[in-house]
Fold:
Amino acid sequence: MLDRDLAQMYGVETRVLKQAVKRNIERFDGDDFMFELTDYEIEKLVSQFVIPSKSYFGGAKPYAFSELGVAMLSSVLNSKTAIEINRNIMRAFVAVRQLITNLPADRVGELQKEVRELKQYMDEILTDQNDINEETYVQLELINQTLAELQTDKRITDKPHRRIGFHKDGE
Structure:
């Protein structure tokens, strides 16, 4: 996300956000937290109508933040929204840690058992499906054989018969 959008989200001015980042630059070390857009990147954003014009940035090169940078930013800004976001991030980390450490003892065994049962059920369904297909195949063969016999009988009955009785010439 861009600095301007994050400043709006956190309820601070863009310059305040940038000052907080510069004062705490060691927290944002590395491109996995944030980076400054180049002139080329800015041109591409403007030319693709992602950003209406360069004036959108207020004359300064904007910072772009990753999700790690957004989380770190919430810890260096001093607004109610930033503080609340930071608290929620910390609560989420604690909840995930508790979930991981308090897994049922044999959860993996339970999952393996469920997978085996599901596999057995699917095998039974596929076996039944194959039985149905074999029975259907036999029935189709019988139908084809009967149709072939009927066609043969029809050819025999469709032959022109010689008329019986007195014939006038030409009839």
Q: What stands out?
A: The two ends are 98 Å apart (CA to CA). Residues 3-101 form one domain.
